[in-house]
Amino acid sequence: MDLDVFVSAHRAEWDRLDALLRRQRRLNGAEADELVALYQRTATHLSLVQSSAPDPQLTGRLSQLVARARSAVTGTRRASWRDVTHFLGHSFPAAVYRARHWWVPTALLSTVVAILLGWWIGTHPEVQASIAAPSQLRQLTRPGGEYETYYSSHSAAAFSAEVWTNNAQAAAMCLVLGIFLGLPVLWILFENMLNLGVGIGLMSSAGRLDTFLGLILPHGLLELTAVFVAAGTGMRLGWTLIDPGPRSRRTALAEEGRAAVGMAIGLALVLFVSGAIEGFVTPSGLPTWARVGIGIIAEGAFLSYVYVLGGRAVRAGETGDVEASERSSTVPTAA
């Protein structure tokens, strides 16, 4: 594209759009129609410049014009309860459902890694000795030891808030760092599975694996699922950078990135539930079967939510991205 020729050909349209937007009085019918037509034309011009001749100064001017014109055409939009219900009932479960081919294998492989690490640590005393001194290991694994008292070391509310904050940060890091080809996400996952494997290995070597699972499963099922969803989505975002498919790389990253931001908000809510279970249910006096049962119910409810509501929303065309009216205009690309 010859940028000088392009600017010369369309400058008058951009100037006219700018003049209409600066009008202090109310536009008449013909002027309003002209404003809409110029807005659509300028949005197309912006997409052409971005894809063919990305000049920063021209892109900045056209972006500002398109944003002002969109605001004038559509009006100022305010968030409403409809947005909240649409997000929870359609966008978020659809985004998680669409990413299932990434987070389900991530969950399965990570679980296998944690089990193998637990077996390796539990069956090799020399590995246990490298973790801590024998007296410290006994303090960790004995009845009433640190593994058990950890969940009741603080008030339930304070503990839930702390757990929720830490887990939400871990999930957000998985989503954000996925853009770096997913490599930091793999490290975060490994650290989580290593911590789980250490607990499995040490408690199984002390003959108390059932106690450990009774403590970890009530909240851990939902908590780890949220982490796996975040990790899988982060790696999917990194893969989009390598293979954007039929979309331009800019468009693909914008769409998947917006969906990932929405997913971070949804997963924060999921982790709030798991944090509440960890703070109030895990250290409670309920029998083990009841505590684990609550964890299984919470996990089943989340998976049903994703596969039923999410699957239905995806089949209806939902992608987890923002609504079409709020996206930037793009040039169609060939499949």
What does this structure look like?
- By secondary structure, this protein is mainly alpha-helical.
- 78% of the residues lie in helices and 0% in strands.
- The chain has helices spanning 3-22, 29-52, 56-74, 81-98, 100-122, 125-131, 134-141, 146-149, 156-177, 183-205, 209-242, 249-280, 288-315.
What does this entry show, briefly?
The chain is mostly helical and 335 residues long. Helices cover 78% and strands 0% of the residues. It is built from 13 helices and no strands.
Describe how the helices and strands are arranged:
Layout: H1 3-22, H2 29-52, H3 56-74, H4 81-98, H5 100-122, H6 125-131, H7 134-141, H8 146-149, H9 156-177, H10 183-205, H11 209-242, H12 249-280, H13 288-315
Helix pairs in contact: 1-2, 1-3, 2-3, 4-12, 4-13, 5-10, 5-11, 9-10, 9-11, 9-12, 10-11, 11-12, 11-13, 12-13
Major sheet size, sense and barrel closure: none
> Which structural class should the secondary elements be placed in?
mainly alpha
Low-confidence stretches: 324-335
- Classify the beta-strand content into a percent band: under 5%
> Helix-strand pattern, N to C?
HHHHHHHHHHHHH
